[in-house]
Write a structure and sequence with these properties.
With 129 residues, this protein is mainly alpha-helical. It has helices at 3-54, 67-79, 82-122.
Length: 129
């Protein structure tokens, strides 16, 4: 391995912590957005549950009188609620992006360990690398 290659590896090793930090901040940002979106979805779901629980027939009796029928009606209504479906799609997309960023961080961390090992090997095992 040439001096230039070793110097390039050393330079890359110095850049990697910042590259990892940038990705970690992106995860933080997306996680915050994801939490807000999940809260929006929960709010819509709560409204649907309240509507279902308070619906009465013409005689003043609850239309959905037991948990099983309320649950079935909830599933039905949430499947066709376009706002909720959009929010869920956005949430799922953010979660996928977060997972992809975590994979990138893991890849950079592996690269960092590998470069550190290579430089340590060529430095003759000096521990301060």
């Amino acid at each position: 391995m040439t001096q230039t290659t070793l110097a390039n590896h050393a330079s890359r090793l110095m850049e990697l912590p910042n590259d990892i930090k940038v990705l970690q901040y992106k995860i933080l940002e997306k996680s915050t957005s994801s939490t807000l979106i999940a809260a929006s979805a929960s709010s819509i779901e709560a409204k649907i549950r309240v509507e279902i629980g308070s619906e009465l027939d013409p005689n003043g009796k609850k239309i959905y009188s037991n948990a099983e029928t309320r649950s079935a009606e909830f599933e039905e209504r949430t499947q066709f609620n376009s706002e909720l479906l959009s929010i869920r799609a956005t949430y799922d997309s953010l979660q996928k992006e977060i997972q992809e960023l975590k994979i990138q961080i893991e890849t950079l961390s592996n690269e960092q360990r590998n470069i550190r090992s290579i430089l340590n090997f060529f430095a003759g095992g000096i521990d301060h690398l």
